[in-house]
Amino acid sequence: MTDRRMNRRDFLKGVAVATAALGIPASGAWARGSGGGSGNDGGHGAPMQARRLGKTGVTVKAFSLGGEATVQMRNRRDEAVAIIDRALDLGVNYIDTSPRYGGGGSESNIGEVMARRRNEVFLATKTHDRSYDGTMRLVEQSLSRLQTDRIDLYQVHNVRTDLDVRQALGDHGAVKALERLRADGTIGFTGISGHRDPAVLLRAIREYPFDCLLMSLNAADVHMQPFQTELLHEATAKEMGIIAMKITAVGRIFREGGITSMDEALGYTLSFPVSTAIVGVSTIRELEENVEIARRFRPFDSEQMERMEALTAGYADQGNFFKLHW
Asked: Cα 297 to chain center, whole Å?
């Protein structure tokens, strides 16, 4: 607990600098602006908070839509499309997906909306292939499913080991494909993602100047191979766009006697200097609740953060299960 308190003090000292880089006043009156989206917030309540996506020059809303859950289901396309449309109506302007979500179903469902509303979205997808040729094949498939000729952020997906990094950064690796795609305007920015080992991602971002980092960050993170310490510090120092995921640990963060609400789970993550948090939702009601939480969010103080961490200490293995099994 002493070490965690020291880390929390270090975190709070660094927030002023890191949040300034994101355009976030310390008062919690967050910067407003537009990224890929229209900035529409559905005409109800306060506008959703917005933050800078690192050095990209893009501004994204604090809550973003993940491409899993209902969004990835081919057999529930009408529901998926309704969720995506409603997200944009509510001001969400960042959507994250992958060809692996639903075996391409996520990209296809998102593509149904992109055909009509592409200019409202900062669109992120990924390559799980570590090679140049494999990545070039994957990006063509993604463009077709997404019904677009451009991807705003293209990420090397699920980097878990040093071998993944060596292959992706090799002479015939995926990153060479990303560079080619960026040069010809097919993609706007490069990124890397992972939820297994922060040390692997730390080495990767030290070796290559990716624009963005997609990393896990929830209230149980501090208890096991934390992403919130050295990796987050390095990424903020490099002014990367930092996208948080696994906020609910696929629902396992919630339990009696622990974290019991999305206000706690999402509030904890958004209290760090991240650009946005992506969450997959099952229903429009879930989406609307998450957007409302992002609208009324104010940063947690040190005591609140430590309380969230203490609540998850007894089931840290579940809150971090993806570090062990995925």
From this structure: 17
**Residue 267: count of CB within 10 angstroms of its CB:** 22
Q: Are 49 and 294 in contact (CB under 8 A)?
A: yes
Gap between the Cα atoms of 135 and 173, Å rounded? 8
Distance separating alpha carbons of residues 213 and 276, to the nearest angstrom: 11
Quick one: which H or E segment has residue 189? Answer: strand 187-194
Of 129, 196, 193, the closest CA to residue 160 belongs to 196
CA distance 235 to 215: 10
In a 13 Å sphere around the CA of 153, the CA atoms on its Cβ side amount to 31
Q: How far apart are CA 75 and CA 65, in angstroms?
A: 19
pTM above 0.70, yes or no: yes
Residue 186 vs residues 101, 143, 157, 211: alpha-carbon distances, Å: 21, 9, 18, 16
Give the residue ranges of DSSP H helices in 152-225: 162-168, 174-183, 198-207
pLDDT in tens, 88-143: 999 999 999 999 999 999 999 999 999 999 999 999 999 999 999 999 999 999 99
Residue 46: pLDDT band (50, 70, 90) is confident
User: Which amino acid does the sequence have at 179?
Assistant: E
Distances (CA, A) of 106 to 65, 144, 189, 227, 299: 12, 13, 21, 27, 32
Q: Name which residue leads in pLDDT, 321 or 25.
A: 321
Q: Whole-number mean pLDDT of the chain? A: 90
Average pLDDT over residues 228-233: 98
- Distance in angstroms (rounded) separating the CA atoms of residues 67 and 160: 20
Q: How far apart are CA 322 and CA 326, in angstroms?
A: 5
* Phi and psi angles of residue 23, each rounded to the nearest 5 degrees, phi first: 80, 30
Q: Are 65 and 71 in contact (CB under 8 A)?
A: yes
Check residue 94 and give its pLDDT: 98
Predicted local distance difference test score (pLDDT) of residue 242: 98
